[in-house]
Amino acid sequence: MASDAPVALLTGTNRGSGRAIAAALHDRGYQVRSLNRTTSGESWLGEHRCDLADPAQLAESVAQVLAETGRLDACVANAVDRVLDPIEKLSAEDWDRIVAVNLTSVFHLIKAVLPALRHSGGLFVTMGSNASTHYFEGGAVYSATKAAVKALMETLLLEERGNGVRGCLVTPGAIANLEGDHAPYKISIESVGQCVASIIDAWPTDLVVGEVELRPAALPRPPVTGIDRLLHV
After folding, report:
1. What is the rounded distance in angstroms from the CA atom of residue 94 to the CA atom of residue 83?
2. Looking at residue 73, what DSSP letter applies?
């Protein structure tokens, strides 16, 4: 049933920072709808089971959300897949799947929601990563997809600002995304959630926040290798 409350569609809200972003928007009065491959069963998330690597599933799920809500005010591309194998061991299957989820699905999501965001003057947010410019051993496919997402979002801004659609790339460093991770050198998921929700709900609509970089406030002692290099960004 349609409502006057603003609607936010997010991907990957069943755990971690995606769930924290959804919770922060829900607390601000947004109707939350989610596209999740693995659902949590929590009704407030408004979940639609969707494998983002399948463009047909993605398009059908977005159409269902728009039919349910009658509007869309914000969309957050948060879902991510990650394999941290070195290039020598990285399989072609893993490369193709991660590119499909981390990059290609963002393109298909933009295409699916763009008419609704044009109508509402809405905002499309993509969760990037400092891995797009700070590389580490085992991060070839992850870094490559995050770098490509930055190019996609910059182009979206160039093409759609005139149509009333704003875009924002959120570029975080290390996030304590895994359950039980309370590392002092990572950003908490709650902080990420509040930051993204404020960009959507509290920042003036006559400006475009093209990119926001988030860094942990504390730094560990070097040396580090692998994905832990992001702790020093």
Report:
1. 7
2. S
Q: Residue 107, SS3?
A: helix
Of 30, 135, 142, 185, the catalytic one is 142
Residues 6+ apart with CB under 8 A from 216: 173, 174, 185, 186, 187, 231
**Residues 177, 101: Cα–Cα separation, whole Å:** 18
30 is known as an active-site residue: no
Distance CA 34, CA 45 (A): 6
User: What one-letter code names the amino acid at 213?
Assistant: E
Question: Tens of pLDDT along 205-233?
Answer: 899 999 999 999 888 776 667 777 776 66
Domains and CATH numbers, the chain: 7-232 (3.40.50.720)
Residue the block writes with tokens 């072609």: 92
Rounded mean pLDDT, 171-193: 89
